[in-house]
Amino acid sequence: MSLLLDVKGLTKRYGGLTANAEMTFDVNEGEIVGIIGPNGAGKSTLFDLITGFQPPDAGRVLLDGRDITGLRPDRISRLGVARTFQKLKPFPDLTVTENVIVGALARTSDMKTARDQALESLAFVDLLEKRNHFARELSTGQRKRLELARGLAMSPRLILMDEVTGGVDQRTIAGLIELVLELKHRGLTIVTIEHNMQVIMRLADRILALHAGRRIAFGAPEQVRSEPAVVDAYLGTIDDAA
Amino acid sequence: MATAAPVGRGARCGGNRVVARLSIYLQGIVFPSPDDSHFAVCAHGPIVERGSGTVRPDQPRPSNFFGIGAYSSTVLFTKYAITPWAGLLVGMLLSALAAVAIGVPTLRLRGHYFAIATLLIGSSVQIVFQRWDWVGAASGLYVPIDRTSPLFYLQFHTSKVPYYYLALGAAAAGYLVVWKLRRSRFGFRLQALRDEPDAAASLGIAIARHKVLAFMISGAMMSVAGTFYGQYVLVLDPERLFSMEISIIVLLMTVLGGSGTLWGPALGAAILVPLSEFSRIWFGGTGRTIDLILYGILILLVCMWRPSGILSLLEERIRRRTGTHEPAP
Asked: What ipTM was estimated for this complex?
């Protein structure tokens, strides 16, 4: 397995608050890395730093050996990095299909090809029946799948998913887990932020645990779960989340 | 500045989902009216920016390009006897360049700051033309009368009907461009970055480049309206050409009809132009600015009850009847 994403010492400060302190981890090709941590641990900030939405104060991000630190978000995404947002950002006044077409247009300039690819992505996330609805008419769970489809339509190498199962009812979660595993099966590399411990234990090959902007553990799921620092940070919340 | 107040008021009543934002006009379309002091310019605005909850021109002031279009053709004609058709193209080119010059430095600004900056740039452009002797300074330019070749020099002194068809042709051409654009890759990307710039960037869309391109296209289209206007009134008055009023009318037609839609601006124009003409007829000379007051009232009403514009009312009715969710073309 080769190294796809290599994050070295990423640091981001907002005034006196350090949102990310010397964050270091790596992601192998074809792997699922889960990121856990209580609210405010710096998970979404980490995503923003990796995808170029915010410039880091220090540290490096390497994609396939290439330094992408500080590149514009659109440049990074064109290198094959897709992401979803914790606070969902569908294009509300476009239809579901059109939303995904925008993603597909990252790879092709032919509208017909883009539409075909969009429909394929929609079929994959099981959203075909809603294809002619406006994005604003969808439920939260459907919007999450829409965002996933939109990112997938770019045919990325790496996708960063911010809480795919958050705010989604229990029955839908099983389907979403299957979806993510199927993506992995197809060779996509995935980094996913997840609050639901059960979900992350099932999905992740390795887990990165954050607390107050710092890495407190990184490794195999069982190992991370038994790490004292993780238990400390999560004490009492593991059962709740499950 | 009588017109500033109503739009300022309108500006604050956004907040609602669809029109808490404003437009990059991708199109300027001319509709002539019987009174030559009142050539209506219809804007098309598929690009709308959601943001600080204010209605604001997310584009350099349209009147800049309107003025540039009018001056380009007229200067070339009066000084070098070049056909306004060539001036039309030169104006489009210059407007596109001006759009880059204005657009690039203001891209980083958002919301009110963008509005303030472009407002001031607009006023500066007007002042430059008012002081620039070569183009007639404050007294402007007169287009010399030429009866030799009406179609070549775009002067039809015996009838106003040809002007109507010219304007109609320009409108149709503009609509064709926008219609094509909306179905193109570029159009899809513009609509995406209008609604969610971050999501758009995450899908590989270079925000700044797309915005500037949209400014260029809209500037060039507005310039066409300016050229035809200049040929129609035969007098270029910088005070009027670069006026706030023209920018506001363009904005108003778009918002009233429905910004971000294909036919909204045409609908807005179809309502506003007759309104202004009839108010002039009813109130006569004493009511010269009554149309502007009516505009102000209208924009307030639209913002309060139908921020997505009148067209969306019709769309909703159609959808309810047919039960389909197909988006409007």
From this structure: 0.89
